[in-house]
Design brief:
single chain; alpha/beta; Glutaredoxin; 2 domains; 5 helices; 39% helix; rod-shaped
Length: 176
């Protein structure tokens, strides 16, 4: 029996050493090994987003540009989370520019009926709607806000959900 007990003791000691070594390896990897830096994605492999060019003329949307000194196109898309989250800003934009010679239009790729339902749900029922494919406006992402002059020439473009300082910038440009 003494021999069997000695054999068990040797096996137990070996297991204790193995577990201790494994614990040390885990601790070393977690706390002392330098973490690999995330690889940067090369911009050359990623296509640049399409954005309308300032100075170019908008021809894809049927609008009488000359009726207003400024024309704002809100290029939106049904189901766009950032478009929906920006609805309060669009309401403010419409209110602040109402008597300033500024026209605000919503341009969506969906049918006019589907766009109207979407905008009504956002409480933007008083906005005029135009239907146009995004690529015909050189837009690849929504929301995109385009300011055009009385000839349909693009003066400013903003893409994405705007932070408050950019919203203030837009309002300052349109209400001056």
């Amino acid at each position: 029996m003494g021999r069997f007990q000695k054999h068990i003791e040797v096996v137990a000691n070996i297991l204790i050493v193995v577990v201790a070594v494994l614990c040390l390896i885990v601790l070393w990897q977690k706390y002392f090994r330098t973490q690999p830096q995330p690889q940067k994605i090369e911009q050359a492999n990623r296509p640049a987003p399409k954005v309308p060019v300032v100075g170019s003329k908008i021809s894809a949307v049927d609008v009488d540009w000359s009726k207003n000194k400024k024309n704002v196109l809100l290029v939106l898309q049904v189901g766009c989370r950032f478009c929906s989250e920006s609805a309060e800003f669009y309401k403010t934009l419409m209110t602040e520019t109402k008597d300033k010679g500024v026209s605000v239009l919503a341009v969506l790729p969906q049918s006019t009926e589907e766009a109207r339902n979407y905008l009504d749900n956002l409480q933007l029922s008083k906005i005029d709607i135009r239907q146009s494919a995004l690529n015909s406006l050189d837009v690849s992402g929504t929301p995109t806000l385009i300011v055009a002059d009385d000839k349909g020439q693009i003066e400013n473009v903003w893409v994405g959900k705007l932070p408050s300082e950019k919203q203030n910038e837009v309002l300052a440009i349109l209400t001056k």
